[in-house]
């Protein structure tokens, strides 16, 4: 990962309960048992992540694992009990209210699970709301809002009120609103969890379409592992407030750091995650049926490789780096690897 | 095991209380202990003098550096007086310059036609044509039936008090939402404001602000504001956390967050609060006619004093009509949804505003030529007074014996025995029993609170009167519950009947408490029985509503499980629905008690001998001390009952895992 770090947190804790602050300063590294004995709940425990410019960073975990709390610490909607958070090199936690508001107005956007639209504003006004708060003149902000509303595919519904829209459409408004200020850092807190499976799929595609156009830095929260591997560049798996592992989807599947992660990844359809380079063997044969890119997912090349009598060459930067044959693909497909 | 012990406790407590009540006289004779029966005078708290001194000090000496307390009350008076006078000019008297005989009218008041047009326009704006017709019709009724002037005086008071109460309540609520310590500070005051009978604070307000409409308005605002504060806090807390976060992530400052996110999102709930403020204001404006507000309440009071049956019913009906108009219109505002933007020029966008404006101007000029346009012609008014008078006479002639028989039976078999039971309880045991009940229900803290509050009542020397209050309230609540819960169940089981019953209850609840006195006095004259009937009528609504709501909110699956297990309808009701609805029933009972207590004080007007009478006498004599002490006693009874029943409902909920 060579692009610059845009958001970083180090050793972030969020404890709930009486005297959470003083407890942590007395016991810098408590275990879970220590916390519950003292009547504290460790919503986030010693979390450290680095988020690079332009990546989609997914925080994955079951409900109650602390992923929503962590993302709220990252955006400082919640004050962490301990730890440091840097946004573009500036300490977010020691920042005065005014600077924080400026950063939120210009550099951050957030999409919420239950959409969090303002019921008294129309689609257009909702999308224009962050601009309104900044004091952008009415005509200009409505013009800019019109563009994002069109971008998310709601052209023609600008004057609807949120309750007149379906869930998927409401979340499109939420997305439009979070994009209106053209943020650099985009938080999405389980944006599609409240939607029906079919709509969810559609919205994921829509999201990828937007990201291919906009190239934002994204922190995406989900409890759905399939969604995570579909969208993520890197995934942080959380359990009981602590981060179990941070890795690419492929690494998570191939080299799970803990039993918990292994259990999680066991039922994933591996062909959707594993890429050619991970299962190739050294170049040996003389003749090949064709070439495949090194980062192609097995799912994408399975038909081709399996149908051919000869193995395929795996190519990176125009050079062959290995070969992949029928046996390797079948191993992945039936889950032997 | 637990249950059996609980039953033993309750039975033992009741038996002991009954024995002590029945034989307290003999006991005090045998032990030669008069203190058993009567709280010793020497132990009474010298509260009445202290309150009087404190008020005197406030009025005479208190000052805050730059200004005195008296300056403050004068400033408040002026602040309230100015808008009130403007509204009176606008609605009734017309604007004029100069004073007394040299006054010259420069602009007449709004014509009755213009006021009706305004009312109808508001109805249409809030919902639709039907509401416009209803509200307009209500106001037309006031004109046709000759209640116009009084109604406009009442309306002027309402229009001044409502904005002050609503906005003041909103700001206090916002402050309470922002600062939890402020909410904790405010809560006991809110509890007291809502439980201290209104008469009790009329006296100090009279002393601070003098007799007249301003004092009445101040009392009204104090009375109507607490629910708005509560509803504001609840409404703001009810805004989803995510919406708040969305506002913060958009970069809102604290003020933007409040006024651009929280308050607009909470508007539907806040409008429910405004509706409450309006209804309470109307209720209080009527009561406050006693300290010089004038208007419809004054007409009713005057008619009651003259025993003018027809006039009383006429004015009372006008109050009912006005209450319905105000309630429906403000409720429609609460339910009003945003509509699509209108386009076009000013006239096209605001057809109603334009129409109303045209009507106002047109009637202004026409009124100069045809007086009938300005003021509804007197010869065209219809008076129903004589009709009602005759009707009442007819009822009394033909059904006197029936009513009398009902009255005597209930008096002899219910009211008097219960009165004897409560009246006989020695005060010391009363305190102990209250403490025991509260302890059993809600733990030692609640027990201690109940003991202290009950001891306060004894220490004011008002124990016997307090027992009369408890007995009247108890019997009324009993009857209201026995009638109300079956009605509620019926309403929940049969949707058709439910619409009628709940609609009727809605209307009953919007009526100012004063109105209930009129028919009761007409039919049963004065006394405990009349008071009880009025209280039952007033307090019936919550028993019905909570029962209906409780039964309706039993989860469908539970009922289906019952049906599949082969329950009959009766078994479904007794084994599943009623137990599940128990917490709701208890909360309904709690509300019934609260309403009963507040109404009980007003029934002092029809001659009860309880704490309410004490407050009322203090009001008549303008003695702040006894009024406040008796008022606080009523409030403490209410608070004890409220805490106990809430604790019961909570316990029940926990047992059911709700």
Provide a descriptive summary of the structure in words.
The complex is a heterodimer of chains A (337) and B (658). Chain A has 337 residues and is α/β, with parallel strands linked by helices. Among the domains of chain A are: 51-81 and 95-107 and 183-267, P-loop containing nucleotide triphosphate hydrolases (Rossmann fold, 3-Layer(aba) Sandwich), CATH 3.40.50.300; 271-334, CBS domain Like, CATH 3.90.1280. Chain A is 39% helix and 23% strand. Chain A is built from 14 helices and 13 strands. In chain A, the strands form three sheets. Chain A has a six-stranded mixed sheet, with helices on both faces. A four-stranded antiparallel sheet of chain A has the order 2-1-4-5. In chain A, a hairpin with a 2-residue loop joins strand 4 (82-87) and strand 5. In chain A, helix 5 (123-134) crosses helix 6, helix 5 packs parallel to helix 7 and helix 6 (138-151) packs across helix 7. The longest helix of chain A has 18 residues, at 197-214. Chain A is globular, with a radius of gyration of 23 Å. The two termini of chain A are 26 Å apart. In chain A, 44% of the residues are buried. Chain B is mainly alpha-helical and 658 residues long. Chain B folds into two domains: 83-94 and 107-379, MetI-like fold (Orthogonal Bundle); 423-656, MetI-like (MetI-like fold). Chain B is built from 27 helices and two strands. Chain B has helices spanning 2-31, 47-60, 69-93, 112-126, 129-144, 148-178, 180-195, 198-209, 213-238, 241-249, 254-265, 267-287, 296-306, 309-335, 346-349, 351-369, 371-374, 385-424, 427-459, 463-493, 495-510, 513-524, 528-552, 556-564, 569-602, 611-621, 624-656, and strands spanning 95-97, 104-107. Chain B has a two-stranded antiparallel ribbon with strand order 1-2. The relative contact order of chain B is 0.10. The model of chain B has no long low-confidence stretch (mean pLDDT 84). The interface between A and B is medium-sized, with 35 and 22 residues.
């Amino acid at each position: 990962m060579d692009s610059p770090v845009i958001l970083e947190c180090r050793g972030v804790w969020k404890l709930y309960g009486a005297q959470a602050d003083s407890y942590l300063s007395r016991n810098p590294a408590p275990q879970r048992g220590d916390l519950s004995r003292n009547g504290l709940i460790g919503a986030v425990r010693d979390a450290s992540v680095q988020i690079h410019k332009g990546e989609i960073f997914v925080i994955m975990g079951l409900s109650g694992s602390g992923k929503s709390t962590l993302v709220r610490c990252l955006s400082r909607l919640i004050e962490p009990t301990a730890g440091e958070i840097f946004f573009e090199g500036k300490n977010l936690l020691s920042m005065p209210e005014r600077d924080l508001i400026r950063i939120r107005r210009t550099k951050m956007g957030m999409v919420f699970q239950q959409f969090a639209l303002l019921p008294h504003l129309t689609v257009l006004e909702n999308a224009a709301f962050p601009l309104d708060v900044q004091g952008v003149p009415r005509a200009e902000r409505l013009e800019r809002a019109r563009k994002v509303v069109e971008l998310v595919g709601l052209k023609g519904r600008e004057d609807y009120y949120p309750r007149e829209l379906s869930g998927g459409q409401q979340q499109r408004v939420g997305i439009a609103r979070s994009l209106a200020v053209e943020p650099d850092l985009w938080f999405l807190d389980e944006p599609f969890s409240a939607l029906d499976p079919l709509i969810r799929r559609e919205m994921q595609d829509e999201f990828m379409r937007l990201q291919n156009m906009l190239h934002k830095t994204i922190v995406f929260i989900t409890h759905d592992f399939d969604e995570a591997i579909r969208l993520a560049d890197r995934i942080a798996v959380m359990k009981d407030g602590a981060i179990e592992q941070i890795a690419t989807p492929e690494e998570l599947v191939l080299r799970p750091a803990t039993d918990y992660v292994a259990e999680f990844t066991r039922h994933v359809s591996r062909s959707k995650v594993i890429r050619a380079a991970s299962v190739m063997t050294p170049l040996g044969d003389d003749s090949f049926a064709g070439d495949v890119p090194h980062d192609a997912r097995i799912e994408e090349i399975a038909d081709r490789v399996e149908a051919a009598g000869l193995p395929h060459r795996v190519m990176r930067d125009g050079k062959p780096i290995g070969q992949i044959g029928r046996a390797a693909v079948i191993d992945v497909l039936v889950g032997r690897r | 095991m637990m249950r059996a012990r609980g039953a033993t406790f309750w039975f033992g407590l009741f038996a002991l209380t009954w024995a002590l009540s029945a034989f307290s006289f003999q006991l005090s004779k045998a032990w030669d202990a008069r203190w058993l029966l009567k709280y010793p005078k020497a132990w009474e708290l010298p509260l009445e003098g202290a309150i009087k001194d404190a008020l005197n000090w406030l009025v005479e000496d208190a000052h805050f550096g730059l200004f005195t307390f008296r300056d403050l009350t004068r400033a408040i008076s002026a602040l309230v007086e100015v808008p009130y006078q403007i509204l009176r000019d606008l609605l009734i008297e017309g604007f004029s310059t100069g004073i007394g005989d040299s006054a010259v009218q420069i602009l007449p008041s709004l014509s009755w036609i213009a006021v009706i047009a305004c009312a109808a326009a508001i109805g249409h704006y809030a919902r639709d044509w039907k509401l416009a017709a209803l509200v307009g019709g209500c106001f037309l009724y006031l004109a046709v039936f000759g209640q116009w002037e009084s109604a406009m005086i009442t309306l002027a008071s309402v229009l001044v008090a409502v904005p002050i109460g609503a906005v003041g309540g909103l700001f206090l609520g916002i402050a309470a939402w922002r600062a939890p310590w402020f909410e904790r500070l405010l809560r006991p005051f809110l509890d007291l404001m809502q439980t201290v009978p209104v008469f009790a604070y009329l006296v100090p307000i009279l002393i601070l602000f003098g007799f007249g409409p301003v004092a009445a308005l101040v009392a009204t605002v104090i009375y109507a504001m607490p629910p708005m504060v509560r509803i504001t806090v609840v409404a703001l807390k009810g805004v989803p956390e995510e919406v708040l976060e969305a506002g913060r992530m958009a970069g809102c400052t604290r003020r933007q967050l409040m006024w651009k996110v929280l308050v607009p999102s909470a508007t539907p709930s806040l409008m429910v609060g405004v509706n409450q403020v309006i209804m309470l204001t109307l209720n209080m404006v009527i009561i406050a006619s006693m300290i010089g507000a004038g208007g419809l309440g004054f007409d009713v009071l005057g008619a009651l004093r003259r025993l003018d049956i027809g006039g009383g019913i006429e004015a009372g009906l006008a109050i009912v009509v006005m209450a319905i108009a105000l309630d429906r219109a403000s409720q429609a505002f609460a339910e009003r949804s945003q509509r699509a933007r209108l386009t076009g020029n000013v006239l096209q966008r605001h057809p109603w505003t334009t129409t109303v404006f045209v009507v106002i101007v047109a009637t202004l000029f026409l009124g100069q030529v045809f007086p009938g346009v300005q003021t509804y012609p007197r010869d065209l008014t219809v008076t129903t007074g004589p009709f009602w008078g005759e009707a009442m006479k007819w009822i009394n002639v033909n059904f006197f014996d029936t009513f009398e028989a009902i009255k005597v039976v209930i008096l002899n078999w219910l009211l008097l025995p219960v009165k004897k039971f409560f009246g006989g309880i020695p005060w010391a045991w009363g305190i102990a029993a209250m403490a025991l009940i509260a302890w059993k229900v809600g733990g030692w803290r609640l027990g201690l609170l109940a003991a202290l509050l009950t001891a306060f009542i004894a220490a004011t020397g008002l124990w016997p009167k307090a027992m009369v209050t408890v007995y009247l309230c108890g019997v009324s609540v009993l009857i209201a519950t026995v009638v109300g819960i079956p009605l509620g169940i019926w309403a929940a089981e049969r949707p058709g009947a439910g619409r009628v019953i709940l609609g009727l209850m809605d209307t009953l609840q919007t009526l100012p408490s004063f109105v209930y006195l009129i028919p009761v006095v007409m039919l049963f004259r004065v006394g405990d029985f009349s008071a009880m009937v009025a209280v039952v009528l007033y307090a019936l609504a919550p028993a019905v509503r909570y029962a209906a709501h409780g039964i309706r909110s039993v989860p469908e699956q539970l009922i289906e499980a019952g049906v599949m297990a082969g329950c009959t309808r009766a078994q479904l009701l007794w084994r599943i629905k009623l137990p599940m609805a128990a917490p709701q029933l208890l909360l309904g009972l709690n509300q019934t008690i609260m309403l009963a207590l507040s109404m009980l004080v007003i029934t002092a007007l029809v001659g009860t001998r309880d704490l309410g009478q004490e407050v009322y006498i203090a009001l008549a004599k303008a003695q702040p001390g006894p009024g406040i002490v008796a008022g606080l006693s009523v409030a403490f009874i209410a608070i004890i009952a409220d805490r106990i029943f809430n604790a019961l409902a909570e316990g029940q909920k926990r047992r059911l895992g709700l």
